[in-house]
UniProtKB/TrEMBL annotation:
Belongs to the triosephosphate isomerase family. One of its GO terms (cellular component) is cytosol. Keywords: Cytoplasm, Gluconeogenesis, Glycolysis, Isomerase. PANTHER family: TRIOSEPHOSPHATE ISOMERASE. GO terms for biological process: gluconeogenesis; glyceraldehyde-3-phosphate biosynthetic process; glycerol catabolic process; glycolytic process. This is Triosephosphate isomerase. It is found in: Cytoplasm.
Amino acid sequence: MRRPLVMGNWKMNGRRCTAQSLLSAVAAEAATFSDVDVVVCPPHVYLGLVGDRLGGCPSIACGAQDVSAYVDGAYTGEVSAEMARDMGCEFAIIGHSERRTLFGETDGVVAQKFARALAADMTPVLCVGETAEERDAGRTREVVLRQIDAVFATCGARAFARAVVAYEPVWAIGTGRAASPDEAQAVHRDIRDAVARHDPEAAAGLRILYGGSVKAQNARELFARADIDGGLIGGASLIADDFVGICRAAG
Ligand code: PEP
């Protein structure tokens, strides 16, 4: 059985005081969602603060929102996977659609970052998903599988032996318009089948998260589907009650 996973992506939000109060509020409820793995991904500058606070709450882990495609060196402004690991990150979000669209990350760069996270002993969380135009053109499966295949091409047939995939339709992110559970389940199934063609063992154990306007109200129905193993949560992860509600829905 795959253990559910809920990840909160804080994106570029918050300050020290809000990070502390949000963490305290979530940690105070951690005992109520014991059958789910919970990860928070703060901005890089707050990783130390979050790590210190989570020291007293072993049931919540820390993740990075991104890592560099390079190893340590002369790359001003970058944060390496090794640095994030050193700060206690067990997970790294890779290829979020905001990185792909706003910062021009290609499938090749994303695959490089995925490889760096693995090499640093972290679990990469590969984000895949189609835009509204691609969906309207009936290209969802083609786009998502292309994004998965780019990682296989760089990292080899066992790429997903230690990884998570997050299916995040771009049109659902931050819009309040989530994919329906049926729609998401169909894409999750395609992703699992695609991984199974290279590595059946990894596919069976692979946690595939859904992301895109998940709220406490729709989480339970989404997570009930056979191939939806939890969620990657943006906006709702900044509100303690909402995030706790989503974690409970998964556990
Ligand atoms: C995200 O950006 O990964 C995301 C899922 O955002 P939201 O939950 O706000 O739609």
